[in-house]
Design a protein that fits this description.
With 424 residues, the protein is an all-alpha fold. It has one domain. The chain is 71% helix and 0% strand. It is globular, with a radius of gyration of 23 Å.
Length: 424
């Protein structure tokens, strides 16, 4: 019933709010990438072809989400609206997975509460409407966490290979999966005591090799096109260039990302240059961002704190809401999502403490949260980056809610029993 409600909310949001896809945006780029793949043009830079009819290889975006959109186009679901509606089903799967995670770590009540929170969370159902990777990557991360919990209780080479393969697929959706993979696999292999050291090494190696095995074909494909090592994406160059510059190290945009034609921020690529090469341009942008960071190391702690706080919705939240609107989100629902996050954060901290006291398996739930935090510190702050961690917040908060409900029920039962024992 919760899943049906979650689907209804997502469909209603898409039909009523009708989130738009800007002409020149990441969402539009994904849509065009999928269309080009479906039309047999290959994996090429979308706007270079759209604006100038030029075929240029790209590795700016990981390939899995465009491949999904290409498949939808091939089966007759090529419009933006149709693809947004398909993502409502993906988002509903995330709600179900969130409930299953909650049930596995803390019982039925926690699972139902976790699914219920995920169903109504604006940050999650909006991700299913803007045609970007967060919808698919969040479902994949939730699937990785659920599989990790199963592997934790039933360790074996086959389980670790399956987990590594799923993490590799997740990485092909968003490159952060490359960081999540060791954060999940290595602790699962090494932390439980009583296992021979050789067995721990075998399990960890099996999982990590599976990750590399899934990524290898895409990496080799990039090598044949760019003649350089690009394991997943070269998007890090533009990210670091726009995140490490004067406006993002102080002032209103502290901890954010900026695209500015004049100045030391990312100024865009000159795609009119007939000799333009994406990999070379991305490498130059990466060097510029790193050089700025090295020249302004003293600002690093303040900038990192601002980045982290932006991602978790506690630094200049009104500004982040407005930036989210530019990405296709709705101002009212983005604000509501920020408020709900403020409510969930203390409940999630309490839930983590409760699980730790019960000696329950906690790390798989924390790994996506740690991944998101590290990525934000290294790059820049954006609540959108938090999408894959939001289901874990829902689960941890649900643990607290379920514990409070259980305690209240016990108190009522005790009180009723005491009244029954009182002589007339």
């Amino acid at each position: 019933m919760i899943a049906v409600g979650a689907l209804a909310i997502r469909v209603a949001y898409n039909l009523v709010v009708d989130p738009a896809v800007a002409v020149l945006s990441d969402a539009s780029a994904y849509h065009q990438l999928g269309r080009n793949l479906a039309d047999g043009r290959g994996y090429i830079r979308p706007f270079d072809f759209q604006l100038f009819g030029v075929h240029r290889a790209t590795a700016e975006y990981p390939p899995l989400f465009p491949a999904l959109l290409a498949f939808l186009t091939l089966i007759g679901l090529g419009s933006v609206n149709n693809q947004q509606l398909v993502l409502t089903v993906v988002g509903t799967a995330t709600v179900v997975l969130t409930g299953l995670i909650g049930r596995r770590v803390a019982g039925d009540t926690a699972g139902l509460v976790a699914a219920g929170i995920a169903a109504i969370h604006p940050m999650l159902f909006q991700a299913d409407g803007i045609l970007m990777t967060e919808s698919l990557s969040t479902a994949l991360v939730a699937g990785c966490v659920l599989l990790a919990l199963r592997v934790r209780s039933r360790p074996g080479v086959g389980g670790f290979v399956a987990l590594g393969a799923l993490l590799g697929i997740t990485t092909l959706c968003r490159a952060e999966g490359f960081l999540l993979a060791p954060l999940l696999i290595v602790p699962l292999a090494f932390v439980p005591r009583g296992r021979p050291f050789a067995q721990r090494i075998t399990l960890a190696a099996a999982g990590l090799v599976a990750v590399v095995g899934v990524l290898t074909p895409w990496t080799v494909y990039n090598e044949t096109r760019f003649h350089t090592f690009i394991p997943v994406s070269n998007n890090l160059g533009t990210v670091l260039d726009g995140a490490n510059c004067g406006p993002t190290y102080s002032g209103p945009a502290l901890g954010s990302w900026r695209f500015i034609r004049a100045g030391d921020c990312f100024a865009g690529f000159d795609i009119r240059d007939p000799h333009f090469d994406e990999a070379t341009a991305a490498a130059a942008a990466r060097r510029q961002g790193i050089d700025y960071f090295r020249a302004h190391k003293r600002r690093a702690p303040a900038v990192a704190a601002a980045r982290l706080a932006r991602t978790w919705g506690v630094f200049r939240p009104s500004q982040q809401v407005n930036l989210g609107v530019l990405e296709g989100r709705n101002h009212r629902w983005e604000t509501a999502g920020t408020w709900l996050t403020w409510l969930l954060l203390p409940l999630a901290v309490a839930g983590a403490v409760l699980l730790a006291r019960r000696r329950a398996t906690l790390w798989p739930l924390l790994a996506p949260i740690v991944t998101v935090s590290i990525v934000s510190i290294v790059t820049y702050g954006n609540p959108r980056f938090r999408a894959s961690a939001d289901p874990m917040l829902c689960v941890l908060a649900a643990v607290t809610v379920a514990s409070i409900a259980a305690a209240a029920s016990t108190m009522r039962a005790t009180s009723a029993g005491a009244r029954n024992l009182t002589p007339p």
